[in-house]
Amino acid sequence: MQTALRLAERGLGNVWPNPAVGCVVTREGRLVGRGWTQPGGRPHAETEALARSGAAAQGATAYVTLEPCCHWGRTPPCTDALIAAGIRRVVVAGEDPDPRVAGGGIARLRQAGIDVAAGLCAEEAAELNAGFFTRVQFGRPLVTLKLAASLDGRIATQTGESRWITGAAAREVAHRLRATHDAVLVGTGTVLSDDPQLTCRLPGLDCRSPVRVALDRTLRIPMEAHIIATARETPTWIVTLPGADPVRRERRRAAGVEIVEVAGDAAGQIDIAAALEALGDRGLTRLLVEGGGRLAAALLSAGLVDRLVWLHAPVVLGGDAMPAAAALGLDRLADAPRFDRVHVQPLGDDVLSLYRRRG
To answer: Confidence band (pLDDT; 50, 70, 90) for 207?
Structure first.
């Protein structure tokens, strides 16, 4: 199952809206086939593994990181493929929360006389597909907030200079995060100040750039901005309010940008929860948020940050520098967003800390 989980990781960031699944087929203690969900979500992992197993699948055991599907979609049910291949036993890490499956896949296999065991490495498998589960259960993608900040929680000097607070190793981690997420989200201010590319530029992973999403309620990001100028090369979505200037909207659409309209909140800003729901409706399961401070504060205040990746640099910028998160308006510590630390890793002089939202 550990091998199947490592295979499943290969699909993170490029199989949405499907889950990233791995499958290993063994017979008499020997691996005879393996597979993982392919780009775009199909073929599924089980189909890939069975194709590589060939006749050796007869009487074999399949280890699958998520309950096999039992419904027709763009591909036939994986349960039918396992049954037709003559698989004798299936070991499943966890059940699929999708209402179209939700235990039905396991039941279908058992009805066909296949021995099914569930729960092996369930916690690890659930974390791997936390994005898929979040979209199924809450209608929005899993949100990972990435902050590259000083020791005192600042992301830029008072003049806005931020390149580079962290070192090369930390920046490489940031690119790897992009490769394993469906989309990367930034606010208007970040685009205007940094004109970021928001692509994955690591050797061998340059084809794994996520969808680029920017919040821009009045469509004031200029046409010359990198994310708009290259929208036909790397998908770019702009989330805006319904009343945004129609001429600006059409110019951006003509440049290849997808316009996503969502409702505003009481203050006339983009409703961040509605924005995430709209992204979920479009199939996104894993969203990486890279800036800036107001966007981070909005997500934290709404309780919408599921994972926090904090890259600490050994530098102090002071109180007049730009904070990683804008004002939250907290009066009591009890109301502060809480996270549990799950991983710490040194990256040269920097330190990476990974947190999971508590509760």
So the answer is: confident
CB 235 within 8 A of CB 260: no
Close Cβ partners of 85 (under 8 Å, ≥ 6 residues apart): 50, 53, 57, 58
Please report how many Cα atoms fall inside a 13 Å half-sphere around the Cα of residue 332, on the Cβ side.
2
The model's pLDDT over 79-106, given as tens digits with 9 standing for 90+, comes to 999 999 999 999 999 999 998 998 899 9
- The question of whether 46 is a catalytic residue gets the answer yes
10 Å Cβ neighbour count for 311?
21
How is residue 292 written in tokens?
């800036």
**pTM for this one?**
0.94
Q: Which two tokens stand for residue 317?
A: 């910028």
Q: For residue 48, how far is the Cα from the chain centroid?
A: 23
* Catalytic residue of the set 9, 28, 46, 124: 46
**CA 50 – CA 66 distance, rounded (Å):** 16
Residue type, 199: T
Instruction: Point out which residues pair with 287 in neighbouring strands.
Output: 143, 183
Q: Which alpha helices (DSSP H) does 240-347 contain, by range? A: 246-254, 272-281, 293-301
Look up residue 267 and give its two tokens. 């203050």
Between CA 267 and CA 271 the distance in angstroms is 9
